[in-house]
Write a structure and sequence with these properties.
It is a single chain. The protein starts with 6 loop residues before the first helix and ends in an 8-residue tail after the last helix. Helix 9 crosses helix 10. It is built from 14 helices and 8 strands. It is globular. It has about 325 residues and is of the alpha/beta class. The longest helix has 19 residues, at about 240-255. Strand 5, helix 7 and strand 6 form a beta-alpha-beta unit. Strands 1, 2, 3, 4, 5, 6, 7 and 8 form an 8-stranded parallel β-sheet that branches. The chain has helices at about 5-15, 30, 35-40, 60-70, 85-90, 100-115, 135-145, 170-175, 190-200, 220-230, 240-255, 260-270, 280-290, 290-305, and strands spanning about 20, 25, 50-55, 75-80, 120-125, 150-155, 185, 205-210. The chain has 2 domains: about 5-230, Aldolase class I (TIM Barrel, Alpha-Beta Barrel), CATH 3.20.20.70; about 240-305, Non-ribosomal Peptide Synthetase Peptidyl Carrier Protein, Chain A.
Length: about 325
C-alpha cells in the first residue's frame, strides 16, 4: 500500500472504524540513512492510534537499527513486512524474498524482538511459489522467536495479486495446536459477507483489508455492522461518496501541501468514482488539474451530473 496508506487516507479509515492501522512500509536502509521520505513515514497522529510502524529490509543489522529509530515515534507495535511481492524488493531478499532465506527471516525476527520493548508482529505470505508454501512451519518458528501476532496473505510471492487468495493454509496455521498468538487473515476480503465467511470458516482472530479500502474507506463500517447485526448497510449515495472524497482531498492538502496532496489523491479519485457512466471527461479533469478550488468544484458537481448513473464495485 505504498503511497496509499498515508496519514490522510488513514484518517478516513479510522473515521469509518478501522481497529488497527499501519504506516506505509518503510525501508530500513532509507530510514537509517535519514532518507526524507522514509523518516516522514514515522509520523503518527493521536487520532490514528493504535498504530504500527511497518519496516522492511534484507539486512538484520539495518532492520534492528531501524526498529530502534521507529520505537522513538512511540507506536503501539513494530510490524515486519515479509510479504511485499514487488520484484525490486523481493529480488533483493526483502519482503516476500525472505522465503528464499528462512533462516535469515527467523534470525532477523529474533534480533528485532530482543531489541525493542514494543510488541513485534509479522506480515507475510504463504511462501515463494506453488512448490514452496512453508507458512505453517514458518509461523511456528516466528512465534517461537517472540512475535505477538502474524498476518498472512493467502498468496505466494509468485502469484503477486493474481488468482484467488487461498485461505485454507491460513486456517491451517490458525488451527495448528502449537499456535498461541493471534492469526490475522488477508487477501480478497472485499465485502461484509466475505469477511464474515472468513471468520466463520477459518476461525481467524482478525482480518486485514488492503486494496478493497481504496476508494471505499467506509468498508470498515460496513463490515462491523454486518458482523454485529447480520445485516448489510444500504449503499452510500453518490452525494455521500463525493463528500467523503472531498474530505479526504482536503486532509491530503493539509498534510502534504497543495501540489503533493493533489498528486497523491489522483489514484484515490479514480477509485472513489469508479464505474460512473460517461465519466471519462470528468475523470480526466480530476487527474490533470493542479488547482485545489477547481478540483473541489469538480467533486461538488459530480452527484448532480451523474445522479442517474450507477456506480459499480
Amino acid at each position: 500500500m505504498e503511497d496509499i496508506t498515508d496519514p490522510s487516507f488513514r484518517y478516513m479509515c479510522k473515521k469509518f472504524g478501522a481497529d488497527l492501522m499501519y504506516t506505509e512500509f518503510i525501508s530500513s536502509d532509507g530510514l537509517i540513512r535519514d532518507g526524507r521520505k522514509s523518516v516522514q513515514k514515522l509520523d503518527i497522529y493521536e487520532y490514528e492510534r493504535p498504530m504500527g510502524i511497518q519496516l522492511y529490509g534484507h539486512v538484520t543489522e539495518s532492520m534492528v537499527e531501524a526498529a530502534v529509530m521507529a520505537e522513538r515515534s512511540n507506536p503501539e507495535l513494530i510490524d515486519i513486512n515479509y510479504g511485499c511481492p514487488v520484484r525490486k524488493i523481493s529480488n533483493r531478499g526483502a519482503g516476500s524474498g525472505m522465503f528464499r532465506n528462512i533462516p535469515l527471516m527467523v534470525e532477523m525476527t529474533e534480533e528485532i524482538v530482543k531489541t525493542t520493548q514494543l510488541p513485534v508482529t509479522v506480515k507475510t505470505r504463504l511462501g515463494w511459489d506453488e512448490s514452496s508454501k512453508p507458512i505453517v512451519e514458518v509461523a511456528e518458528r516466528l512465534q517461537d522467536k517472540g512475535i505477538k501476532a502474524i498476518t498472512i496473505h493467502g498468496r505466494t510471492r509468485a502469484q503477486m495479486y493474481k488468482g484467488s487468495a487461498d485461505w485454507r493454509l491460513i486456517g491451517e496455521v490458525k488451527n495448528n495446536p502449537r499456535m498461541k498468538i493471534p492469526v490475522i487473515g488477508n487477501g480478497d476480503v472485499d465485502s461484509p459477507e466475505v469477511a464474515g465467511e472468513m471468520f466463520d470458516r477459518y476461525g481467524v482472530d482478525g482480518i486485514m483489508i488492503g486494496r478493497a479500502t481504496v476508494g471505499r474507506p467506509w468498508i470498515f463500517r460496513e463490515i462491523r455492522h454486518f458482523l454485529d447485526t447480520g445485516e448489510k448497510l444500504p449503499p452510500l449515495s453518490l452525494f455521500e461518496k463525493s463528500r467523503i472524497a472531498k474530505e479526504h482531498f482536503l486532509k491530503s492538502i493539509e498534510r502534504k501541501g497543495e501540489r503533493v496532496g493533489i498528486l497523491q489523491m489522483r489514484r484515490h479519485f479514480v477509485a472513489y468514482f469508479k464505474g460512473l457512466v460517461n465519466f471519462k471527461e470528468t475523470r480526466l479533469r480530476l487527474l490533470t488539474s493542479l488547482d485545489q478550488e477547481e478540483i473541489i468544484s469538480i467533486i461538488d458537481m459530480i452527484p448532480e451530473r451523474y445522479m442517474e448513473t450507477k456506480s459499480v464495485y
